[in-house]
Amino acid sequence: MDLLAFYVTDALIGFLKNGGIFMYPLILCSIAGLTAVGFKMMSLTKSRIVPDGLAYDIDTFETRQPAGLENELQRGGSTLARLGALAVKHCGKPVAEISQVVEASAREEVLKMHSGIGVLDVVITIAPLLGLLGTASGLVVIFQGLGATTDHLIIARGIAEALNTTIFGLAIAVPGVIAHTYFSRRIEMLTARMEAVMTGFISVCARQTQDAK
């Protein structure tokens, strides 16, 4: 197993070295992409956005009156909690006014949920371009040296090495596109769930105020 790992590592290092100078920005792109993916994996969890337990308590607030809900909202441990606390804070006002305040804050929260997506956008856009640029640069060097040799094997090997940057660029971009699509879809799903929960909660807050009168 150790021998296999050694050969794989050695082949990878050789692959990167043969790619030329454009491999360095591609490596930076891969690091940036991996960092963005890791950040989004941690930040787009249900516990940070719409915890199931809190969503259930809010959904059933009118009938169950769950104990400790207001304290949990005030702690603001999730996006839903912060929006719920804002709705409670503005109880006593019309539904339209509460909705306007909550929606304004929700737009900020959604923007926070999209943080890091821009990095993936940049990576999946420039990685293939850098790969093509590296390949074009390598081919220029090869063709400039055609007069110095007629060995077709050397020329073929040089072209294969020049294509390394294109391969690496695409290898970065393809997973980046998959991750971008997944995270975008997850944000849509979490936002829709949060909107459904908060719409009912705002109505309950306003209705309780009317009942109190």
Brief account:
By secondary structure, the chain is mostly helical.
What portion of the residues fall into strands of 2 or more residues? under 5%
Gross geometry: elongated
Q: What separation lies between the terminal Cα atoms?
A: 75 Å
Radius of gyration: 27 Å
Pattern of helices and strands? HHHHHHHHHH
Number of strands: 0
Sheet of most strands: none
Helix content: over 70%
**Total tally of structural domains:** 1
Protein topology:
Blueprint: H1 2-18, H2 23-43, H3 52-59, H4 61-64, H5 69-75, H6 79-89, H7 95-113, H8 117-144, H9 152-162, H10 164-212
Helix pairs in contact: 2-8, 2-10, 5-6, 6-7, 6-10, 7-10, 8-9, 8-10
Features:
mainly alpha, 10 helices, 213 residues, 82% helix
What does this structure look like?
The chain is mainly alpha-helical. The protein has one domain. The protein contains ten helices and no strands. The radius of gyration is 27 Å and the shape is elongated. 27% of the residues are buried. The model has no long low-confidence stretch (mean pLDDT 84).
